[in-house]
Design a protein that fits this description.
Layout lengths: L7 H6 L11 H11 L9 H7 L5 H15 L3 H12 L6 H6 L1 H10 L2 H9 L5 H38 L4 E8 L2 E9 L7 E7 L7 H14 L5 E7 L7 H12 L5 E3 L4 H15 L2
Parallel strand pairs: 3-4, 4-5
Antiparallel strand pairs: 1-2, 2-3
Helix pairs in contact: 2-4, 2-9, 9-12
Keywords: Endonuclease, Hydrolase, Nuclease
Pfam families: DpnII
Organism: Palleronia pelagia
Length: 281
């Protein structure tokens, strides 16, 4: 593949939004449970018991999310509060099943009865308030995960089109200087000629230090004659232009072979075909 010198303007001008839907199966189950809560002027301890479904692990997790939404707690904060009050023995379904009364007492002590009464009787429609809390809390994390996975799916579709089954996704490859993780190793992780990393800025866990650190780990481990392709997107980069420049500098000095965004899909496919021929894969 011909060596090129990519510019900051070329990459920044090709950036596009990464769309993602926060409403996954878990969120739908949570909203269904919330919408089953009756409209009433006053709630009691019995209503807490009705909110909790302990028939299996997933149902209990839905119940805990509902409790957190009524209380306005994040998942982590609810876990801390429950652990503090329940003591040792966990906070999951087995703990609830073994001592339901104590568990319900703790939920009441956290203010769940008052929270349910206040929330349900709040205008506008109370479920809209809880849905917004779900969206801004768990929903934002789901969006981040889907942004990141969306880029991986984008890359994998084209990789599969060009190389068929001759690639390994989300693996630890063996490089000349040791192992490192990557999103795709072609044709295999044992002796990869092409390494592909995809990061959507704003995806869960994709802090700037993580992105650059992951790229540098691949650069340090890989064979010098192996190609490293980096796929990224997201308008958040425009607010972190200097950080993007650091990655582009790695491309300019040869440590990264090429950088792509989703708008550059035709170039990505063309370059993979070129590399396939050059490496004889």
């Amino acid at each position: 593949m011909r060596v090129v010198h990519q510019s900051f303007d070329q990459i920044i001008d090709s950036l596009s939004p990464l769309e993602a839907d926060w409403m996954d199966d878990m969120a739908e189950a949570i909203m269904e449970r919330i919408q089953d809560v009756p409209m009433k002027a006053e709630f009691s301890r019995d209503d807490i018991a009705s909110l909790i479904d302990a028939k299996d692990g997933p149902s209990f997790q839905v119940s805990k999310f509902c409790v957190g939404l009524f209380l306005g707690f994040s998942k982590d904060k609810l876990e801390v509060e429950l652990t503090d009050r329940l003591g040792s023995g966990g906070t999951g379904i087995k703990r609830y099943q073994s001592d339901q009364d104590a568990y319900l007492d703790v939920l009441a002590d956290l203010g769940l009865i008052d929270a349910m009464t206040t929330t349900v009787n709040t205008i506008p429609v109370w479920s809209d308030i809880l849905k917004e809390r779900l969206r801004s809390g768990r929903g934002s994390a789901i969006q981040g995960q889907q942004r990141g996975r969306g880029l991986e799916d984008f890359a994998e579709e084209i990789i599969k089109e060009v190389f068929g089954a001759a690639y390994e996704p989300r693996c630890t490859f063996q490089g000349a200087a040791g192992p490192a993780k990557c999103d795709f190793a072609i044709p295999n992780k044992g002796l990869p000629f092409i390494l592909i990393e995809s990061k959507g800025y704003g995806a869960t866990g994709s802090k700037m230090s993580d992105i650059i650190g992951d790229l540098d780990a691949i650069i340090a481990a890989k064979r010098h004659d192996a190609s490293l392709l980096f796929i990224t997107d997201g308008l958040t980069w425009k607010a972190r232009a200097n950080d993007l420049r650091k990655i582009i500098q790695r491309q300019n000095d040869g440590r990264i072979t090429r950088i792509y965004t989703k708008q550059m899909h035709d170039q990505f496919r063309s370059d993979l075909l070129t590399l396939k021929n050059e490496y004889g894969i």
